[in-house]
């Protein structure tokens, strides 16, 4: 695992965007990107948008797979991750919406939707680079502590701490869905490359567990210690407990 400590949150985004651009250059215009919601990757998406604007990068033929989705939010719900990915990634990065997928959290059979998602990733040739943030409890995607380290895309129950952390996007805590569909830790580990970003002191303990802690389902992100091409890009505040 490569760890890069940056002076500013913007630098975190710039370095992560440079990695994604390099992967697209190496793999070709049809590269497959694993996309994450959350505030952590926003600076990277902004830098990718700047590169596209400058004509240095073209993602119009790239394929995208979102990491996770809430269960039960109807299509078009502004807090569904499908909408968040559209607003923060697909539109600004001028990706083709038909080439960007999200797990179907509104499916009547969510288990079948999870299996279908795994098959779609496989059919696309696998993910070339997975963009990740990390939750304060060490979760990646929505793989909460105790997730199997070899898990695949499936339905998970959100912990109260995650629902509380995400309640800022909803009117009340009760409005935050209780379940989600998430790529599993095994799915994430299959990506050819992983770039994880974290900024701020509230991520310091999760980052310490992820990088230096024992490999354990208690800190799901620690599984990345086994990934052959994982890069963790963080600012000084997030590095404080290393
Ligand atoms: C959410 C998402 C994760 C994200 C994490 C951190 O629960 N499911 O994919 O990485 O929380 O979010 P943020 O980047 O806003 O801190």
TrEMBL record:
Pfam families: Glucosamine_iso (PF01182). GO terms for biological process: carbohydrate metabolic process; glucosamine catabolic process; N-acetylglucosamine catabolic process; N-acetylneuraminate catabolic process. InterPro entries: Glc/Gal-6P_isomerase, Glucosamine6P_isomerase, Glucosamine6P_isomerase_CS, NagB/RpiA_transferase-like. Residues 11-225 form the Glucosamine/galactosamine-6-phosphate isomerase domain. It catalyses: alpha-D-glucosamine 6-phosphate + H2O = beta-D-fructose 6-phosphate + NH4(+). PROSITE patterns: GLC_GALNAC_ISOMERASE (PS01161). The keyword Hydrolase applies. Allosterically activated by N-acetylglucosamine 6-phosphate (GlcNAc6P). GO terms for cellular component: cytoplasm. Its EC number is 3.5.99.6. Transmembrane segments: none annotated. One of its GO terms (molecular function) is glucosamine-6-phosphate deaminase activity. Catalyzes the reversible isomerization-deamination of glucosamine 6-phosphate (GlcN6P) to form fructose 6-phosphate (Fru6P) and ammonium ion. This is Glucosamine-6-phosphate deaminase. It comes from Arthrobacter oryzae. The lineage of its organism: Bacteria, Bacillati, Actinomycetota, Actinomycetes, Micrococcales.
């Amino acid at each position: 695992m490569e760890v890069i400590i940056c002076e500013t949150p913007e630098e975190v985004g710039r370095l992560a965007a440079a990695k994604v651009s390099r992967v697209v250059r190496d793999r070709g215009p049809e590269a497959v990107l694993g996309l994450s919601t959350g505030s952590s990757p926003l600076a990277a998406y902004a830098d990718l948008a700047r590169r596209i604007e400058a004509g240095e990068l073209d993602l119009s033929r790239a394929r995208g797979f979102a990491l996770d989705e809430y269960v039960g939010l109807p299509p078009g719900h502004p807090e569904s991750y499908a909408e968040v990915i559209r607003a923060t990634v697909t539109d600004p990065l001028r990706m083709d919406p038909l080439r960007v997928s999200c797990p179907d959290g509104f499916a009547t059979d969510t288990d079948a939707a999870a299996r279908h998602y795994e098959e779609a990733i496989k059919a696309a040739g696998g993910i070339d680079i997975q963009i990740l943030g990390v939750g304060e409890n060490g979760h990646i995607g929505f793989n909460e502590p105790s997730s199997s380290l070899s898990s695949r895309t499936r339905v998970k129950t959100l912990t109260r701490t995650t629902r509380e952390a995400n309640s800022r996007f909803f009117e009340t805590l009760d409005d935050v869905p209780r379940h989600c569909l998430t790529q599993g830790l095994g799915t994430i580990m299959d990506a050819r490359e992983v770039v994880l970003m974290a900024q701020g002191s509230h991520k310091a303990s999760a980052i310490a567990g992820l990088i230096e802690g024992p490999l354990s389902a208690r800190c799901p992100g620690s599984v990345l210690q086994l990934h052959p091409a994982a890069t963790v890009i963080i600012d000084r505040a997030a590095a404080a407990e290393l």
